[in-house]
Amino acid sequence: MPQPDGAPASGPVDRPGLEAAPQARTRRSFLATAGLYFKLTKPRVIELLLVTTVPPMFLAANGIPSVALVFAVLLGGAAAAGGANTINCWIERDRDQVMHRTRHRPLPSGELAPVRALWFGVVLEVIAFAFLWTTANLLAASLAVGATLFYVFVYTIWLKPRSPQNIVIGGAAGAVPVLVGWAAVTGSLAGPAWVLFAVIFLWTPPHFWALSVRYRDDYAAAGIPMLPVVKGIKVASRHIVVYSVLVVAATLLLVPIASMGVVYTVAAIVLGGLFIAQAIVLARDLTPERALKLFTFSNVYLALLFTAIAVDVVVRNA
User: How high does pLDDT run on average in the chain?
Assistant: First the structure.
């Protein structure tokens, strides 16, 4: 059901003698509107995607990649991810209106017209594809936009409202940025890139299941069959432990396949141990607060793990 157009942003109260008030009102209105479009892109999600894009470029280059290429991939990747998230917001605006966590987003709150949001997302995707093709290569550009198509049609439209395995399969979209980074450097894909893809793919379910444990009531109210809603929190916590073990196994598989050094190996073991421990603690303490701690730590875990990849490459080639 389409949402009504948002009302114009209100400006300051008019007072006699303030001739500049109309201009100030227009300027603030533009900035406020730009801020709403920016929120549609889910910048916090983009940050994590970009963190997983750059280290594979170091690994693919076996050293420090071109700064210009890194900047181009970051910019193009941000546009592609932002477009995907915007289209996701457009599709889910009705469900977002039901959930306490999301009801204040620009579309369910009525601050932006849905059709404008859709066009904004589509334009971002076109820009991302053209920019990555021009500055990197066709493979990188195709992977980035292909991830958007998978995220929108396979995950958001098909899986998310129908299956408790939604995030398991849909997590493939979030794993594609590692392939984009690798392809941008080499123009092809290789074994280490696919191992990193597997790491993100396996990391995504425990990451989002922890969030859905915290907001289980929200997902239930919106009719979204997340695993904690359909199978219960106890079952979900067991799945989280299993997947956390699989994630760590995948991170260690990178050591022989990519000839990783001591820096990465130690980081993978230590961080992996902490990740598994956090998952086990949640299984014993099934509270929303503990679930949120695991969700937060999973972000830190992934960022530090991928940072270790880049550092390891630089140290080995120093």
Answer: 90
Closest CA relative to residue 223, chosen from 92, 45, 42: 92
**Are the beta carbons of 123 and 37 closer than 8 angstroms?**
no
| Rounded distance between C-alpha atoms, residue 41 and residue 79, angstroms | 9
Other beta carbons within 10 Å of 102? 19
Q: What would the pLDDT profile of 8-62 be if each residue is shown by its tens digit? A: 333 333 434 434 434 444 455 888 889 999 999 999 888 888 889 999 999 999 9
- 165 or 24, which is more confident? 165
Which residue has 């899986």 as its token pair?
Answer: 159
Distance CA 256, CA 55 (A): 17
Which residue bears the tokens 């359909």? 230
Give the whole-angstrom CA distance, residue 60 versus residue 161.
37
Where are the domains positioned within the chain? 38-316
CB–CB of 240/294 below 8 Å?
A: yes
Q: 60 or 95: whose pLDDT is higher?
A: 60
Give the whole-angstrom CA distance, residue 139 versus residue 133. 8
Give the separation between CA 78 and CA 68, rounded to whole angstroms: 15
CATH number of the domain located at residue range(s) 38-316 in this protein = 1.10.600
SS3 per residue for the chain = CCCCCCCCCCCCCCCCCCCCHHHHHHHHHHHHHHHHHHHHCCHHHHHHHHHCCHHHHHHHHCCCCCHHHHHHHHHHHHHHHHHHHHHHHHHCHHHHHHCCCCCCCCCCCCCCCHHHHHHHHHHHHHHHHHHHHHHCCHHHHHHHHHHHHHHHHHHHHHHCCCCCCHHHHHHHHHHHHHHHHHHHHHCCCCHHHHHHHHHHHHHHHHHHHHHHHHCHHHHHHCCCCCHHHHCCHHHHHHHHHHHHHHHHHHHHHHHHHHCCCHHHHHHHHHHHHHHHHHHHHHHHCCCHHHHHHHHHHHHHHHHHHHHHHHHHHHHHCC
